[in-house]
Design brief:
CATH class of the largest domain: Mainly Beta
Strand order of the largest sheet: 3-4-5-7-8-9-10-11
CATH architecture of the largest domain: Beta Barrel
Shape: elongated
Distance between the termini: 47 Å
Length: 256
């Protein structure tokens, strides 16, 4: 039987220690098992979305909550008076994403959903008026953010996203305004871009303060005037100040 006469390989390199006279087949099998164990250990992950302690491929799943203020403009269309030129409203929502760590920061890919308070404006007096509103505002976005961290816990980020957004467009009023009536659901392409500052509270929690410009493209709203069908152009845009808290690997403790 063929035997190994001498072997002095390190166990950490994926091989095993062998002794004189040990059968070659047993040595080979032991080496393959040790090598396979090393590969599994190097490629194993905490979850399909988080793998951040093995090698250079480091990614982390995260959830975040978002609150802030919108300074919204409603129905700003060339050639027509703007219904709401600038109105402060509340916005809130959540995001889920994956952070890919880099030497000087991170790249984040996320899905974000948010809602917004109504914006409205009334023209005319208390007797004869028309009120136009945008209610039930929403957006669903896919975002890409690039984090740059020049210090241990403090950094800045920039990026943007695309998706869809919408609201319920309504109009009507009293007196002459009662001749106008409209209630239409609007949805269209939306985009946003911005940046901000972030602070790492711990390895698994980050808080950031940022600015974004958000816009829903122009659409056509349907309404009736003295019983006849009519249309009006409408859109929505907002400058936003947002506070966001991200929790990385939020379910890590539940998997053990």
């Amino acid at each position: 039987m063929l035997t190994v006469t001498r072997s002095r390989l390190s166990h950490s390199s994926g091989a095993v220690f062998c002794s004189f006279g040990q059968p070659f087949g047993i040595v080979l099998l032991s080496s393959l098992v040790a090598f396979a164990s090393g590969v599994v250990k190097a490629e194993s992950c905490d979850s399909p979305l988080s793998c951040c302690d093995q090698g250079s491929n480091c990614r982390q799943f995260y959830l975040s909550g978002i609150v802030g203020a919108d300074f919204a403009t409603f129905d700003k269309v060339s050639g027509n008076p703007t219904t709401v030129p600038n109105q402060s409203i509340f916005t809130g929502g959540a995001a889920a994403g994956v952070r890919y760590l880099r030497d000087n920061g991170a790249l984040r890919l996320e899905f974000e959903g948010r809602g917004r308070d109504q914006v409205s404006a009334t023209s005319g007096d208390a007797v004869d008026n028309i009120t136009t509103r945008a209610t039930d505002g929403w957006s669903a976005m896919v975002n890409v953010w690039r984090d740059y961290k020049p210090y241990d816990s403090f950094g800045l980020y920039a990026g943007g996203g695309i998706g869809a957004g919408g609201y319920r467009w309504t109009t009507g009023g009293n007196g002459i305004g009662s001749l106008v009536s409209g209630n239409d659901r609007i949805s269209n392409f939306a985009w946003q871009a911005g940046g901000g500052l972030f602070y790492e509270i711990s390895k698994r929690a980050t808080v950031d303060l940022g600015y974004r410009f958000f816009s829903i493209s122009e659409s056509t709203a349907e309404f009736s005037f003295i019983g006849l069908p009519a249309t009006a152009p409408t859109n929505f845009a907002a400058s936003e100040l947002l506070l966001q808290v991200r929790i990385y690997e939020p379910f890590r403790g539940w998997r053990r």
